[in-house]
């Protein structure tokens, strides 16, 4: 009997031991949970800090609206007259008293400075500003013809990846803070990264098109990109206002069915018309002299650009230079 009692007592003792071990272990476990919670808290905080620094480091595109109006002069195709038009529109806006900057986004192929006659004064360029190698005011070149006009040249580097949406946003923000009213962005050809950099922040697009099928087709693609990839599209703001600028127009060739008419192009592109710029030998002369064509008050092309600028500013101006100029003999015989 006593044997049994002893056994029971022993078992009790063992159970007690076991219980206290379990208790100790539970306590230990509780400490671990507490530590773990603290540790987790620490990790979380660290992660948050890292995330914050990360967003500070590469905060991405600028998502706040600008006060200035950003106008991109774009097209799918090269050689249609974007640079000529950027120079003319920027000069025209400045002539109207608006503080205007024109940026050459054509990295590696800069020629806006040539067209505007300031190539010898280029020291710093857009990429230098984006990479913080120069301040904006060091890179901006004051136009020698017109007050209120500044040029930000492109770099001749071949590195097309040197531009980032964030960097471009910073440059535009800098211009906005400096009180510019209009920023005209001269786009490179194509629909790749460079063209996207130029159009991303646009409020308005001047879709530069020649009256030929391939140019119209490429313009159609760029309109698609403006409607899907611009900041306004991405953030679901009011869409970019796209308008058609038909350049190098030759009415005589339209009559002969060698060129698409204004109506043909408008029908194909279905965006409102900003202007029609006639083909003119004055354009090449002006660019060789480094004077924007809009400064030539005698030239039809210059006058047509003046009209386009008026329309950009919201004024209604009748279309000119879209019909064939009658030569001396045809005028004589028509009577
Ligand atoms: N209205 C025009 N009449 C005659 N030549 C023009 C006209 N517009 C542009 N050009 C010429 O066409 C060529 C390409 O123009 P440019 O403005 O450099 O085009 P992009 O910037 O689209 O490549 C240049 O030689 C320019 O002088
Ligand atoms: Mg160009």
Write up what this structure looks like.
The protein has helices at residues 2-57, 82-95, 112-115, 126-130, 136-139, 165-177, 193-199, 213-229, 231-234, 251-255, 262-269, 281-289, 300-312, 328-334, and strands at 69-74, 100-104, 141-142, 149-152, 182-186, 204-209, 241-249, 273-278. It is built from 14 helices and eight strands. A hairpin with a 6-residue loop joins strand 3 and strand 4 (149-152). It is of the alpha/beta class. The structure holds adenosine-5'-diphosphate and magnesium ion. Adenosine-5'-diphosphate binds next to helix 2, strand 7 and helix 12. Magnesium ion is lined by residues 82-83, 106.
CATH first level: Alpha Beta
Strand content: 5-15%
Instruction: Tell me how many strands there are.
Output: 8
| CATH fold-level name | Rossmann fold
Key features of this structure:
335 residues; alpha/beta; 8-stranded mixed sheet; 13% strand; binds magnesium ion
């Amino acid at each position: 009997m006593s044997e049994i009692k002893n056994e029971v007592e022993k078992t009790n003792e063992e159970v007690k031991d076991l219980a206290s071990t379990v208790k100790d272990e539970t306590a230990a476990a509780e400490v671990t949970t507490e530590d773990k919670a603290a540790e987790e808290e620490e990790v979380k905080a660290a992660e948050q800090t890292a995330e914050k620094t990360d967003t500070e480091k590469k905060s991405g595109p600028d998502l706040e609206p600008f006060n200035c109006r950003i106008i991109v002069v774009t097209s799918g195709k090269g050689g249609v007259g974007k640079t000529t038009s950027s120079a003319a529109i920027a000069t025209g806006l400045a002539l109207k008293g608006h503080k205007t900057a024109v940026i050459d986004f054509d990295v590696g192929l800069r020629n806006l400075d040539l067209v505007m006659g300031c190539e010898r004064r280029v020291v710093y360029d857009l990429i230098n500003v984006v990479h913080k190698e120069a301040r904006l005011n060091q890179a901006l070149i004051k136009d020698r013809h017109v007050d209120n006009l500044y040029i930000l040249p492109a770099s001749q580097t071949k590195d097309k990846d040197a531009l980032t949406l964030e960097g471009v946003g910073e440059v535009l923000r800098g211009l906005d803070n400096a009180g510019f009213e209009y920023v005209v962005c001269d786009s490179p050809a194509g629909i790749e990264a460079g063209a996207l950099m130029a159009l991303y922040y646009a409020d308005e697009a001047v879709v530069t098109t020649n009256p030929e099928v391939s140019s119209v087709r490429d313009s159609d693609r760029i309109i698609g990109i403006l409607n899907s990839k611009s900041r306004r599209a991405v953030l679901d703001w009011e869409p970019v206002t796209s308008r058609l600028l038909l350049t190098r127009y030759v009415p005589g060739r339209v009559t002969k069915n060698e060129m698409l008419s204004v109506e043909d192009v408008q029908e194909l592109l279905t965006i409102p018309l900003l202007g029609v710029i006639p083909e003119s030998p004055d354009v090449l002369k002006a660019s060789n002299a480094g004077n924007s064509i809009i400064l030539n008050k005698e030239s039809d092309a210059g006058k047509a650009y003046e009209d386009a600028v008026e329309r950009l500013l919201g004024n209604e101006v009748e279309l000119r230079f879209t019909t064939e100029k009658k030569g001396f003999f045809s005028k004589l015989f028509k009577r």
